[in-house]
Amino acid sequence: MYSSNRKKLYIRMHEIFTLEAVYAPKLPLQQLRVRVLLSFKNEVSEPVLRCQNHLSKDTESNQTRRESLLRCENPTAEYCGTSEGKNINDRYSIIFPLGLSVMPRNDCPISQTIAIKFTCQNSCIGRRETSLIFLLEGMSGEILSQRVMDVKICSCPKRDYEADERNCARPSKRKANDIESRKQKIAKVENVTRKPAKIAIKDEDTSSDSDNSDSGISISRDLDLQLTPSGEYRLSITLEKDLMEQIIQNVNQAVALKIYKEPQQAKHYNKMCRQLLWYSEKFQRK
To answer: Quick one: which residues bind Zn(2+) (predicted)?
Structure first.
């Protein structure tokens, strides 16, 4: 079962589900591949390993395939990684090539089916939340695009799906009172002054059509970009809820990818991921 509200898949162990990898090839044609890996949602740098119970019962002869919590039914799938892997290439993952020999007519997108199943449940790994990460790569490993989907492997997907939907749609009485109290406080603050929400990001592009100065770039009343003493950029922006929630999700995905590229900075970026997830869950409860 898939929740479009939470962008989350609920599935049983060993149950196969299929996805369509859709991409638009560009000239000059190059060989591409898809890499799929499972990650903890709140600790992206930590590898996801199988439990000893299910591992001991697995009769798979291929050692890497046996230890992988992910299984791909595509015949061209290649299993890679180790239990100590930190970088993308060293983590347990599955890669398979996207076959393309000629340019399609009328620039039509190409699609290829991915069939995946899981060999453990979330209860095997301490009930920690997990996400599937899909990376479109060149054959030398450069990352061209990425997608992230939350997933819960459980014995009763329908039960967990309905429970999460209820919790998302109907907050508890205490939460409702807290939300109402926060709304009243926000209303009082807005009567005095309007303060935009703030998200700290790094970006090398500081161009703007508005006036700028050494201390920052003032674009409008609802948008302000400033250079911090540490060399980072701080963006202050006021948006409606839906757009802000989407921006938080996009920033969280970008930070997750940064962890894979720079594992030595994992501690710093993991803290940022947890903060972004907290804000994302806060939006969902409202």
So the answer is: 51, 54, 120, 124
pTM (two decimals): 0.60
Annotated domain spans of the chain: 2-166, 178-285
> If you classify domain 2-166 with CATH, what class do you get?
mainly beta
Instruction: List, as residue ranges, the binding site.
Output: 51, 54, 120, 124
Annotated binding-site positions for Zn(2+): 51, 54, 120, 124
Q: What is the pLDDT of residues 25-77, one digit of tens each?
A: 777 777 888 999 999 988 888 889 999 999 999 999 889 999 999 999 888 89
Among residues 28, 36, 27, 23, which one has the least CA distance to residue 99? 23
